[in-house]
Fold each of these.
Amino acid sequence: MSPQPLVPRMRGFGTTIFDEMSKLARDNDAVNLGQGFPDTSPPAAVLRAAQQAMDAGENQYPPGPGIPSLRRAVAEHQQRFHGLGYDPDTEVTVTFGATEALASSILALCDAGDEVLVLEPAYDSYPAVIALAGAVERRVPLEPPAMGETPTPATGTATPTPASTGWRLDVDRLAAAVGPRTRVLVLNTPHNPTGTVLDADTLQAVAEVCVEHDLTVITDEVYEHLVYDGVHTPIATFPGMRERTVTISSAGKTFSCTGWKVGWACAPGELTTALRTTKQFLSYAGGAPLQHGIATALGLGDDVYAEVADVHRQRRDLLVDGLAGVGLPVTRSAATYFVTADVTPLGFDDGEAFCRWAPEGIGVAAVPVSAFVRDAEAVRSLVRFAVCKRDEVLREGVRRLGTLVGVVPGEESA
Ligand code: PMP
Ligand code: GLN
């Protein structure tokens, strides 16, 4: 056997940063503020619905595109929250998480040598699947916000770091990246890892570029219900976009069931036929009882959706204020499971080195923002911390970080 059996185009991907950091967290019994998964359970009604489906014998292969009741629930969800109409039979496909929806879409729509635009920082599965397809990735950098001033907690300034918000997409840079082989834009808003929500003016301008250059958009909206400031608008709602957009989401974040891996893709007929063709050879279809659980989940009342956003907004504030309190410049994310902070005041100018050290060093796991970019220079000292944990876990994480600078949270100004 060749000493390097992995095909060249997949070399360099290694083990995902999320798996790597969660392993370090487990091995060191660290507070895991790395991989984005909550430490609370899905709503009881959702658990019950999945259990009932199991008890009722829904344990065999579901239909390839997903069970009809879930496809109907997804279509109703798109109408209810976004005013987007999809035919559950021909325009909605249930997938093994958003990850499989992304993979099946990219593999269906991008041929070898086609160019695909992605926003940078980029979620790890985009470059990997683009490589699987033999396509060529072109990155369009988001521009980082100015981070707040670092306070000097050790000397007792009472003013916390002014948290900043918002990375920006310069749509002219996006337009300039379009070439003759560009086929697809992979969009992600609300955005992981920056926590930015692209605003309607930006999305309108993105839509115009896509229409002008006849691009197909694959949009990853898994954090659609975890918005704390601002409004999430699906790009499919802009003029000329529905017919050229695959809208992807998943139940994992909204209903605290990331391990269920129930996701979906909504797209007009021909795009749906294309992605179903590849999807059936990735996993075919699975998770039958879980699909029943999510059919119930999507139909829950507005109060359930509002609560998930409220709880996570409070957690974001707790973590942002805590990180600022121990002296870290931090971005008050508008959305998602994440905030990003600069760890320089902790004595590290390299976020990756910090993340490799911290699980054992102080019992905290996090994810370096450099894992989402090609050239780490501009984000070298930035680290992503997950907010989707119970308050006491977030507080303990902050306390442990504070030990590095001699700060006891709550006593910063003592
Ligand atoms: N896209 C983004 C931006 C994510 O953060 C994640 C991680 N949860 C996924 C896709 C994958 O979603 P799923 O777990 O449903 O496959
Ligand atoms: N989306 C999650 C994150 O960004 C991780 C999911 C995964 O590990 N694939 O942390």
Amino acid sequence: MNKITITTPDDWHIHVRSGQLLKTVISHTAKRFKRAIIMPNLNPPVTTVSQALQYRDEILHALPKTSDFNPLMTLYLTDTTSVKDIHEAAESEHVHGFKLYPSGATTNSQSGISQLEKTYPLLETMQKLAIPLLIHGEVTDSDIDIFDREKVFIERHLTTIIQKFPALRIVLEHITTKEAVHFIQTQPQHVAATITPQHLMFNRNAFLVGGIKPHHYCLPIIKREIHRQALIAAATSGNPKFFLGTDSAPHLKHHKESSCGCAGCFSAHAAIEFYAEIFERAGALSKLEGFASHYGADFYQLPRNTSTLSLVKENWDIPSAYPSDEHEIIPLNAGQHCTWKII
Ligand code: NCD
Ligand code: ZN
């Protein structure tokens, strides 16, 4: 197949930052996606509806004039989030979920939850008001190996949350293991997961063999090949519980290429193209539209997009860097070529 046309996709997990970085990255997403779930891990975090609306305005102002891109906002769940905050969020047409970061799990998660049990009254309210809970599913206990953090989170915490709140709508974000795939498959329909392009494209050898590749470092960390295979099978299965979430997470080059580099891969410049290549290689291009354009909207109870996006089989070169003021961001697969191109 040399051309595909799909319903315009949405990105159900992205970091677009603020200020100059936002201005640098947002057009890449707006060119490919109609909507995106905007992660709230700014510093300080987005914790209230009024902050989310202010952030949404900043995003809208950073967009190219002709863009009809719609940012879908989320709030950051903290130890001080109140039941009233949940009610306000549920009433806002622009807020679509709460993001739970275990404290210390990832970039800007220092305001995250210190003890999951403390959030139970909030989860109760979210369940009642049918507002989704988006989870960074990793434990941060120092005795747990970084490659096991997701698996242990599922065993120790997610199972309990689902038992206690059986109607709560949950997205386990950026899953990375066969255990997570299996877990999601065996849960009710309103428990779903997003999958990133980097976890579908790379295993930990690509990240660590022949020299460390800081631009492949993200959290949850990239795992063994057996896990990548399980993720590809899930994404291309046509099961609506698995949908697109790039987790595109831009950091300036010098913050990644450092003795203590930041976690996050920037993939917005070629996100849908990467997924097209992955699905094509798996012999499952016909399953791309469901994963990229239908299942996420269905989960969030939003209408599917009515416009379309076309891609052609044509090589193009990914730049070695994108400038951002006097700095630069290194895109995923910098300097290599993409085999699909958006029209
Ligand atoms: C994200 C970021 O940089 O904001 N980083 C990452 O490695 N994925 C945060 C996150 O989603 O964990
Ligand atoms: Zn993320």
